[in-house]
Amino acid sequence: MRTITASEAKQGFASLIDAASREPVVIQRQKRAVAVVLSMAEYERLTRLNVAEFQRFCDRIGNQAEAAGLTEDKLAELLASTD
Questions:
Q1: Distance between CA atoms of 14 and 5, rounded to whole angstroms?
Q2: What is the pTM of this model?
């Protein structure tokens, strides 16, 4: 992964975009990583992974709740409760 300074990113924005199409580019300010520029394809891939992971998490929790006896009716009752 390539790393450049914020000043380099500002001065060479077109080059930054070209580099990001090949690999993520870390931008540093005062020797501290502050941002990453990546291609749209990589962003979409990461977004799909996050959505899939969240769905697996929800399915796992739902299965545990069902195994513990939680039904849709009981859930609705709990959500409607003002206690």
A1: 15
A2: 0.66
Ordered strands of the 32-37 beta sheet = 2-5, 25-29, 32-37
What residues does 80 pair with on adjacent strands?
A: none
Would you put residue 73 in left (φ > 0), alpha (ψ -120 to 50) or beta?
A: alpha
- What average pLDDT does the segment 42-59 reach? 94
Architecture per CATH, 2-38 = 3-Layer(aba) Sandwich (3.40)
Q: Report CA-CA distances (Å) from 1 to 6, 13, 25, 36, 53.
A: 16, 17, 6, 10, 24
